[in-house]
Design goal:
The chain contains eleven helices and ten strands. The protein is of the alpha/beta class. Helix 1 runs parallel beside helix 3, helix 6 crosses helix 11 and helix 8 packs antiparallel against helix 11. The longest helix has 29 residues. It binds zinc ion. The site of zinc ion (ZN) has 5 residues, from loops.
């Protein structure tokens, strides 16, 4: 009875898997607003394709999986390393002496870290960034990426310093690194923006090799973040383009891997703050970030 049953299973799996994979490709290339829940549809792949004889049929069906490792190669970000950097630290404010220490960023010296901003009601940027990064990590891990955080809940009491945040991405050999923030601009200033590394070759900073790939990453990030959240590019800088290059951020000056910052919204604007404090919106933000990284790593920018 088991041989019969597994024969049926193999047929079903063989029929379903190409559909799932094709479905992901369609999602990947045509994804638009409202398609936020679709990435999870790839989740059944690992458990299903691991079921013995079905694997061989899967390999034959899509032609991409290596014999014996269909699961890993079926995931779109298999083999990719992503470093996510939650801006600030929830307990930075208890360590002002430590975070005010100046560190070398090539173009000058800057504070090791800053406390970040907060909404008028007191929701801290450092709590926001950790929450969004956790959500993005889950999405990227499900797509096969190896995800490393620069710090996490229960980690260091302050920082890491901005130079260390860059170093973590560099030493991980990250294929992409993203620093997540929310802005503290005036009420009425709304929307998100992506910060790209300017071309800097000064002191210990040399971004020349990563300016172009970082721009591709940032461009993909802008498009997917807008699609996932429905947010518009910031109305208060960069001419409304949502993309700005800066040479005054240690986390960008010192990176040797493709990296961008995303300022997800303005915590000091009541309308943006309503979104930033909404867990469902933060899930959309994480999806936008994960989709931007995914598009970049798959060369679809
Ligand atoms: Zn920040």
């Amino acid at each position: 009875m088991f041989s019969n049953k597994s024969g049926v299973l193999a047929i079903v799996v063989a029929a379903l898997l190409p559909t799932c994979f094709a479905g992901w490709l369609v999602w990947d290339s045509l994804r638009g607003p409202g398609a936020g829940g679709e990435p999870q549809r790839v989740l059944p792949l690992p458990s299903v394709s691991a079921s013995g004889s079905a694997s061989a049929r899967t390999d034959d069906a899509n032609g991409t999986a290596a014999a014996g490792t269909p699961t890993a190669s079926a995931l779109p970000l298999a083999g990719k390393v992503v470093v996510l950097d939650p801006g600030h630290n929830p307990t930075d404010h208890e360590h002002t002496a430590e975070i005010n220490r100046l560190v070398d960023i090539g173009t000058g010296r800057k504070a090791c870290d800053t406390t970040g901003t907060a909404t008028k009601a007191g929701y801290a940027e450092a709590a926001f960034t950790l929450d969004v990064v956790h959500r993005a990590r889950a999405l990227l891990t499900a797509r096969g990426a190896t995800v490393k955080l620069t710090h996490d809940t229960g980690g260091p009491a302050f920082g890491p310093c901005i130079d260390e945040r860059a170093r973590i991405g560099n030493e991980a050999g990250a294929d992409a690194a993203v620093s997540v923030h929310a802005d503290g601009s005036a009420a009425g200033d709304r929307g998100f923006h992506v910060i790209l590394p300017a071309s800097v070759h000064q002191g210990i900073a040399d971004t020349r090799a990563i300016v172009a790939p970082s721009r591709r990453l940032g461009t993909a990030m802008k498009r997917h973040f807008a699609d996932a959240t429905g947010s518009a590019p910031a109305n208060y800088l960069a001419g409304g383009t949502g993309l700005i290059s800066r040479s005054d951020l240690g986390g960008l000056n010192l990176t040797t891997v493709p990296k961008v910052f995303i300022e997800c919204g303005n915590m000091r604007d009541p309308n943006d703050a309503a979104e930033l404090t909404d867990p469902a919106w933060r899930q959309s933000a994480a999806e936008g970030i994960a989709d931007g990284i995914t598009a970049f790593l798959r060369g679809k920018t």
